[in-house]
Amino acid sequence: MATDILISIYPELMPKLESGIKNFEFRPFVINDDSITMWLYETKPTKLLNAVMNVKPAISVLSDNQHYGLGDNKFYEIINTGRVAYEITSFRWLDNPIDIKKIKTYYGLANAPQNFVYLQNYPKLLSDLKAQTQHQQSSLDF
């Protein structure tokens, strides 16, 4: 089974995700699935659903061959706040970002996600996003 979720990301983190320096995404929830796609809604001032990344299942300990691009000590500092880490395996920008107004009015989401939203609950949005990415080449696979 595959899980697609919508999460919010601060704009200042996007270049770090794109470059691969930020190679883990930390969240306060665990998604129990082997195939996880995180669709990224960039918060103020951008207010766009404009990128997607694939991640591995959640972990809380780095293996011997894993390192956090912003420092292993920082990894454990974040984990100690009660979060888990999802290793990012690919990141790509969407060719046709979706603004918050369309997300609310056309797709029916009340607000941008505070934690996360299962996109399976919004089949039209998920279908449109997947159709868009099928025509794109992955810009960054890590």
Protein model, in words:
The chain is an alpha+beta fold. The protein has one domain (2-141): Hypothetical protein (Archaeosine Trna-guanine Transglycosylase, Chain: A, domain 4, Roll). It has helices at 14-19, 72-79, 100-105, 123-134; strands at 2-9, 24-27, 35-42, 48-55, 84-99, 117-118, 140-141. Strands 1, 2, 3, 4, 5, 6 and 7 form a 7-stranded mixed beta sheet that branches. It is globular and about 45 Å long. The chain starts with a strand and ends with a strand. The model has no long low-confidence stretch (mean pLDDT 94).
What is the CATH superfamily classification?
Answer: Hypothetical protein
Q: Give, in order, the helices and strands.
A: EHEEEHEHEHE
Biggest beta-sheet profile: 7 strands, mixed
The CATH class is identified as: Mainly Beta
Q: Which structural class do the helices and strands define?
A: alpha+beta
Average pLDDT for all residues: 94
Strand content is 25-35%
Cα radius of gyration in angstroms: 15 Å
List keywords for this structure.
alpha+beta; 4 helices; 34% strand; seven-stranded mixed β-sheet; Archaeosine Trna-guanine Transglycosylase, Chain: A, domain 4; 142 residues
Show the helix and strand layout.
Elements: E1 2-9, H1 14-19, E2 24-27, E3 35-42, E4 48-55, H2 72-79, E5 84-99, H3 100-105, E6 117-118, H4 123-134, E7 140-141
Parallel strand pairs: 1-3
Antiparallel strand pairs: 1-6, 2-5, 3-4, 4-5, 5-7
